[in-house]
Design goal:
The complex is a heterodimer of chains A (about 325) and B (about 325). Chain A contains twelve helices and twelve strands. Chain A has about 325 residues and is of the alpha/beta class. Chain A is globular, with a radius of gyration of 18 Å. About 5% of the residues of chain A have low confidence. Chain B is mainly alpha-helical. Chain B has one domain: Glycosyltransferase, CATH 1.50.10.20. Chain B has 13 helices and two strands; from the N terminus they run ααααααααββααααα. A two-stranded antiparallel ribbon of chain B has the order 1-2. In chain B, a hairpin with a 2-residue loop joins strand 1 and strand 2. In chain B, helix 1 crosses helix 13 and helix 4 packs antiparallel against helix 5. Chain B is globular, with a radius of gyration of 19 Å. The model of chain B has no long low-confidence stretch (mean pLDDT about 90). Classes of the chains: A alpha/beta (about 325), B mainly alpha (about 325). Chains A and B meet through helix 4, helix 7 and helix 8 of A and helix 11 and helix 12 of B.
Chain lengths: ~325, ~325
C-alpha cells in the first residue's frame, strides 16, 4: 500500500474545511474551464494556508498543491447499465476533471470503478459513453472489481469487518478523487462522495452485489472503508441528480451544481443541505463527522454559490422522512 | 484496427491470449500478468478444455486449483484469503473434468451442499412475517440458494453456478442433501425472476418498483434451468434476452447471451452485435473470463455444459 493512511482527527482539532459550490446548468457548457478554475482557486487557497505540518492536520495524504507529477485516480459512480444517463456520473464531468488534473500537472489521471450490481463493467462504461470523451479505455479505465488486490486491515471497528481486500490501483494512487452523482439512496439516505467509495470494494472478492457490506451494516462499512482510504478530494456531479428510490430506480432531478472540496464529509454535508436534507440525521455522516471531516456548517467555509441560492429539494422515500429539512414558505 | 473474422477470433486472439496469460503457478489472473485467482482459472480451464486436447497446461491449471482448496473443501476467491466463496462451485465444476481431482471434487460438493445462506433461520422468517407490509423487497425468504460469500444472502449467479455444478457431478459423488438443495435453489431462481422475465442479481422488486433484468444473471439462471425450456418463466426470460441482445454493449454479456440462446436452440438475432466488433473496440479490456466466455460462445466443440467427461493425465 503506497498511500499514507488518512489521519483520524477529532472534529474539534480539525481546521475549517473549504467547499466550493458552482452553478452548472448543463453538461454542454464548458465544464473544463469551470472545473479547472475551481481546482486552481482551491489549490491557491491551500497553498496560502499550508504552513508547516498543517496539511497533515487536515488528514489528507496529498493535497491539490502538490499534485504535480502525481498519479490521480478519479472514482466516478458508475453504478449500472445506463444508456439514458440517469444514474451515473456524467462522462463529460469525468473527462473535464481528467483534463483539469492533467493541466494542473498530474503525471497521469486514471479512472476506475467497480459496479456493485452489474458484473459487465465494459457494458456499464460503454453505456455511459466514457470512451467517446476520454478515448480508448484500455490503460485509462480500470475495472476495480477485477483488479489486483491487497489485504488492508481496517483501522476502525464501526462494522464487524476486520479487513478488506482492496484494489491496488486505488491503493497505489497518490490522489483519489471521489466523483459521485447527487442522489438519494433507498438504504443509506444519500449516496455522495463517502458512499461512492463502496465502489472500490472488489466484486472479484466479494461478489455482485458486495453483500458482505450490507450484512455488516452499510452505514458502518462506509465509515470503515473511508477510514481506511479517505478520498483526497471530491467533485459531486449535481447537474442532473436523482431523488426518491436511488441509487438506480429513483427519479431524475436537476440540481444544477457541481460541488468541490478536499473534505469529503464537508462536501457531502453541503450536498445534503443543497438537497434540503439534514446531514445531522444521516447516520454515517454523523459518524464520519467525528473523525473524518466536518459535518457542522460552522466549520465549513463555503466558496462560490451559497447553499440557499442553489437549494433544490430532493424527495426521499418515506422511510427517510426524518432527514428532510423542515420547510417554511420562505425557503 | 481491422477486426478478425468471428470464426478466427478464437484461434487468432482468444486462444493465444489465454495460453499466454497462464501464470507460473498454473493459474490465471483476471488480467494477464495479474496474480492467479480461482475464478479466472476456472473459466480459462473450461474454455481451454473445449479447444485443446488434454495437455500439461491444463494439468497445471488443475494442480493450481487443487493447491488452493481450503481444508473445509471450499475455495477462496484469491489464494491469500482463507474463507470459501462462490468460486467453490466454479472450481468443482472445472475439476469435474480431471480424473486426478475426485477427492477435491467430493470435498467441494460437500461444502456446496453444507453452505447455507444467511437470513433464513426460523427466527428471521418469523420476523419477516411479523414485518410483512413494511418490507423493502418482495421475495419468498423461505427459499434458499447460495450467496457470493458465506453468511450472506442468496443471489442469482452463485445459485446458478452451484446448480450447474451439482447437475454435472456424477450421482455417486453427490452428498445426501444435494437433492433438497437442488429443489430449494431452483424454486429460489424462479421466485427471483423479474416481473417481465429475466433476472438481475436477485432483487426483482425494491420498494414496489420492478427491477431491471441484466444479461449475465439472466443467462446463468436460464442455463441452470435449461432442462425446463417450456416453463413459462423460462420462455418469458428467453424472450427478454432475444429482445435485448441487440442493445448489448459488453463482450461478457454478449458471449453469455449467445451461449444461452444457442443452448435453448434459438437463432442469434441478425441485428445483434458480434464479438469481433466488440473486440475491436476495447479488446475485451484484457479480461480473462470474458476471453474464456468468448471461446465458449464461439467454439462449437465445447461440451462444458454437458455431463463431465474426465481427463486423464496428459
Amino acid at each position: 500500500m503506497h498511500r499514507a493512511e488518512p489521519a483520524l482527527i477529532p472534529a474539534f482539532q480539525r481546521p475549517a474545511s473549504h467547499v466550493a459550490i458552482r452553478r452548472a446548468e448543463s453538461y454542454e457548457q464548458d465544464l473544463f474551464e469551470l472545473i479547472y478554475e475551481t481546482l486552481r482557486e482551491l489549490q491557491k487557497r491551500e497553498e496560502n494556508e499550508r504552513v508547516g505540518a498543517a496539511i497533515k492536520a487536515v488528514g489528507t495524504s496529498a493535497g491539490l498543491s502538490d499534485i504535480r507529477g502525481k498519479t490521480v485516480l478519479l472514482k466516478p459512480n458508475f453504478v449500472g447499465f445506463d444508456p439514458l444517463g440517469v444514474m451515473n456520473t456524467h462522462p463529460l464531468v469525468v473527462a473535464a476533471a481528467r483534463e483539469s488534473f492533467l493541466k494542473l500537472g498530474a503525471a497521469q489521471v486514471l479512472i476506475g470503478d467497480g459496479p456493485a450490481l452489474d458484473r459487465d463493467t465494459e457494458a456499464v462504461v460503454e453505456s455511459v459513453r466514457l470512451r467517446e470523451y476520454v478515448g480508448p479505455l484500455r490503460g485509462t479505465f480500470t475495472d476495480l472489481n477485477v483488479d489486483e488486490v491487497e489485504r488492508v486491515p481496517l483501522r476502525t471497528r464501526a462494522s464487524r469487518l476486520k479487513e478488506l481486500y482492496l484494489p491496488k490501483t486505488v491503493l497505489g494512487a497518490d490522489f483519489v478523487v471521489s466523483m459521485p452523482k447527487l442522489k438519494t439512496h433507498h438504504w443509506a439516505g444519500v449516496t455522495l462522495s463517502l458512499k461512492n467509495m463502496f465502489g472500490i470494494v472488489p466484486g472479484g472478492c466479494y461478489g455482485w452485489p458486495k453483500n458482505v457490506l450490507h450484512w455488516a451494516g452499510i452505514d458502518k462499512c462506509i465509515l470503515d472503508i473511508n477510514a481506511a482510504l479517505r478520498p483526497d478530494f471530491a467533485i459531486v456531479d449535481g447537474i442532473n441528480g436523482m431523488e426518491g428510490n436511488g441509487p438506480i430506480q429513483g427519479i431524475p432531478k436537476k440540481g444544477n451544481v457541481l460541488v468541490f472540496g478536499n473534505d469529503p464529509v464537508a462536501v457531502d454535508a453541503t450536498c445534503c443541505r443543497i438537497m434540503g436534507l439534514l446531514p445531522e440525521r444521516i447516520k454515517y455522516l454523523v459518524g464520519a463527522g467525528t473523525l473524518l471531516g466536518h459535518l457542522n456548517a460552522d466549520k465549513i467555509e463555503q466558496l462560490g454559490e451559497s447553499i440557499v441560492s442553489v437549494r433544490t429539494r430532493f424527495a426521499v422515500l418515506k422511510e427517510f422522512d426524518k432527514i428532510k429539512e423542515p420547510t417554511t414558505e420562505r425557503n | 484496427m481491422q477486426p478478425p473474422a468471428d470464426t478466427d477470433l478464437v484461434s487468432t486472439v482468444c486462444l493465444p491470449f489465454l495460453q499466454a496469460a497462464q501464470n507460473q503457478d498454473g493459474g490465471w489472473g483476471f488480467h494477464p500478468g495479474f496474480s492467479s485467482r480461482v475464478e479466472a482459472t476456472c473459466w480459462a480451464l473450461l474454455a481451454l478444455i473445449g479447444l485443446e486436447s488434454s495437455n500439461e497446461r491444463q494439468q497445471e491449471g488443475f494442480r493450481f486449483l487443487r493447491s488452493t482448496q481450503l481444508p473445509d473443501g471450499s475455495w477462496p476467491s484469491s489464494a491469500e484469503q482463507n474463507v470459501g466463496c462462490w468460486a467453490t462451485s466454479l472450481a468443482t465444476w472445472a475439476l469435474l473434468r480431471d480424473a486426478q481431482s475426485q477427492t477435491a471434487v467430493s470435498a467441494g460438493l460437500r461444502w456446496i451442499c453444507e453452505d447455507w445462506p444467511r437470513g433464513t433461520n426460523f427466527l428471521a422468517r418469523v420476523m419477516r412475517v411479523l414485518r410483512r407490509g413494511n418490507q423493502a423487497t418482495s421475495q419468498d425468504d423461505t427459499l434458499r440458494g447460495w450467496g457470493w460469500t458465506p453468511n450472506t444472502a442468496s443471489w442469482v449467479e452463485p445459485t446458478a453456478f452451484a446448480l450447474i455444478t451439482l447437475d454435472q457431478a456424477p450421482k455417486e459423488l453427490l452428498p445426501s442433501g444435494a437433492t433438497r438443495r437442488f429443489q430449494y435453489a431452483r424454486a429460489l431462481l424462479y421466485d427471483r425472476m423479474c416481473p417481465g422475465g429475466g433476472w438481475n442479481c436477485g432483487n426483482p422488486m425494491v420498494y414496489g418498483v420492478p427491477g431491471d433484468p441484466l444479461v449475465e444473471p439472466t443467462a446463468w439462471a436460464l442455463l441452470a434451468l435449461r432442462d425446463e425450456p417450456n416453463r413459462r418463466e423460462n420462455v418469458m426470460s428467453l424472450e427478454w434476452l432475444e429482445k435485448n441482445v441487440s442493445g448489448m454493449l459488453g463482450a461478457g454479456s454478449l458471449a453469455l447471451g449467445k451461449i444461452c440462446l444457442e443452448t435453448f436452440g434459438k437463432r442469434w438475432p441478425a441485428n445483434a452485435p458480434d464479438l469481433k466488433q466488440l473486440y475491436a473496440r476495447n479488446e475485451f479490456l484484457g479480461n480473462v473470463p470474458v476471453m474464456a466466455w468468448t471461446c465458449l460462445a464461439l467454439n462449437a466443440r465445447s461440451v462444458w455444459l454437458g455431463a463431465a467427461e474426465r481427463q486423464s493425465d496428459a
